[in-house]
Amino acid sequence: MTTSRIFHPRHFMTTTTLLLLAIVAATANAQTIANLQVGDEICAEGFVLDTYCIERTTLLDNPTVFSLENPELHSVHCLVDVNSCFSSPFEMLVNVGSQEYARGWRFDDAGRQAMVTLGRQVGSQTLGCTECEPDGGDPTDVAFTRQQEGLRAVVKAQVTSLKLEDDLKVPELTLLADPIHTNTTISTIPILDESVTDPCQRFYGMTNILDILTPEEQSQLFTTETPASFRNLRLIHGSCMLIGWGLLLPNGMLVARYFKLHPSSNSAWFKFHRICQPTGLLVATVGWIIALVNFDVFSDRDTRFVHGLVGSIVMALGWLQPLNAYFRPHISPDHPKTTTRIVWEHYHRGAGWFCFFCSLIVIVLGTLIIPRPNDRLGFQSAFVVCLLIMLGNLAFMKSDSKQDLRGFCCTRKIPPAEEPKEKDEDNA
Known about the structure:
elongated; transmembrane; B561A; electron transport
């Protein structure tokens, strides 16, 4: 095609349209945040943390500390020794000037392995890091204390995703060089500029990516959403369990135990029992499902594991109670209790009380593993209130001085000449 034909109005318009469409398509497929796009080489610096500890919201080696609030307290030992940690993806937490660090970057598999290697190089066997390289220096030296102060690193990397079109919680990086520990007394990488303190300029002669991105762009990239959402789930889980096993279920059991008077022609106690038990069990089940879906408590043998295991056993046994109550052997005035009925009564009562006492243990353990002090104190106080309510009900029901009121609530006086008749619900 000659030059004159290319610039013919019809051909020129066609060519221009195709070029514009190609540019639009390329722009649509590229992930871009003003000053950053996929493929850019960047320098980033921050604390390296495993996704497992981030998602559980508290540090595995220090359950009272929130992962995004104090990542410097996450030990290198936990990062490279504990299977739950080093087998999960690694992320770099960045300081965006708020109370919580942001989930800045996620490393690919090669980057995760490079961080594991770096952690094992700077950690100390003297201080308990079994997978770290042997050391022979002074344990008081800064090189040995790093494993107790988190793994802070600086990386030169290429952006592979900005999470704009991918189902990622954080953008992803692939390393272009080995990561550098920011403690210069440990790092063997030559320092390019001694006059600066920023690790990116100091080691790579590059500008830290946080200094390039505006606050609005940072908010597009980074997130601190996980701790808040998980905290809400924990609060809902704990509230459901406390209402179910700390209030409704035990008081329903106490009513069945002490208000079941013989003879009786009024079944108010039985109705109360049938309301409290299913309601409490349903509320507790909501909390149980939240825990099973969102919390990983079975990976490590600690207090959380015991809490989750015993709690699941209690819930399973708890659900057997309404099932065996539905299929209970019935009795009538004309047919005395059968052996099957007696066995069922002993099992139903025994299983109920077993669940009750185990649930108290589970609740106590649950209040001990709540990470935020204010939340922990709130649940412990609420549990004490539930115990006081139970004790108050127990004292009321056992008090001889309340016989008249108790009889008014649950029985009617039967003339001496009237023969008492046993009702089925009296033994449910």
